[in-house]
TrEMBL record:
Family: Belongs to the DHHC palmitoyltransferase family.
Record bears the keyword Acetylation: no
Subcellular location: Membrane
Presence of the UniProt keyword Transmembrane helix in the record: yes
Record lineage: Eukaryota, Viridiplantae, Chlorophyta, core chlorophytes, Trebouxiophyceae
Origin superkingdom: Eukaryota
Organism for this UniProt entry: Symbiochloris irregularis
Cross-referenced InterPro entries: Palmitoyltrfase_DHHC, PFA4/ZDH16/20/ERF2-like
Transmembrane portions of the chain: 38-57, 77-99, 183-202, 222-243
Alphabetical UniProt keywords: Acyltransferase, Membrane, Transferase, Transmembrane, Transmembrane helix
Domain comment quoted from the record: The DHHC domain is required for palmitoyltransferase activity.
Protein name: S-acyltransferase
Membrane topology: Multi-pass membrane protein
Amino acid sequence: MLGSNKENAGCLRRCCFVLEDYCNVFQFCKFLKQLGKVMALFVAALIGTVTYAVVFLTHGPKVVEGSTAQQRWGSAIGVLAFLFLDGMLTWSYVVCAFTDPGRVPDQWMPFDSEEEAITELQRQRYSPDPKLAGLPRVRHCRKCQAWKPDRAHHDSMTGRCVLKMDHYCIWVINCVGLLNYKAFLLFITYTCLACILATGLLGPSSLNFVLEKPAQGRMPGMVFVATVIAIAFAVSLLGFIIMHLRMVAINCSTIEMYEKRRVANWPYNRGIRRNFAEVFENEPSRWFVPTLTLRHRQWLLDQALRPLTGPRIESDADV
Ligand SMILES: [Zn+2]
């Protein structure tokens, strides 16, 4: 005879733990980490190709050799604008890749005393699944053997819990979380803008190449390839940016999008304006800079490490 739902779910949970111990699927992560190094070089090669086509093959030479003053000035402004976006996307990339996404401090726990922590740990280990028993659940990471703040998730690539983890990005070879999410969003935004501008700058030369008209610049075949790369990146990144802006508007990470379906009132949504300010900071002058001020960084950490007072989200998703 089948047991109750509670017993079945408890049994399933224990089976998953055993299976997870014996078949560590995250061995695959080591491969992804190695792949990330290749992807970073791939990104650099693609950006380098487009930059070379704009600066050295088409509009750079026109700044000096253009037949009219209008053409020379137009090319100069185009090249400068492109180099500005190139610089901003590189800065954002470096900040995103080398910033710690948010570490849970050693010995952090959401209890007033050690005894409370031990009691809760024993309850979680030896009681039936507390989620199903309808009891509030304090999150504990089995892999780190440590308490886990709300919105933190275990990242199998870096082997630790990350505050407000969004995803592990193989393009930047780093986990994207609380402290580098702004840099990540600015990286994809500046890259998209640079690709749109490059498409506009390289488009006429590429069109001539396709229509087999006499080439106006150098290496028309390479300019055409750079244009295709720019269009492909611009289109795919645009969709990605729209998806992330929607999540910023409701204060939700990529992982939490799956959790949110099970929560009626999302406790972190503080209104669009405050949600945007949480990621991009309050002052408009800071919105376009990939780094965080020390004050905002500390505020984010204080928010992420304080016990949640609203409805608790019963999720333990690890990535
Ligand atoms: Zn962990």
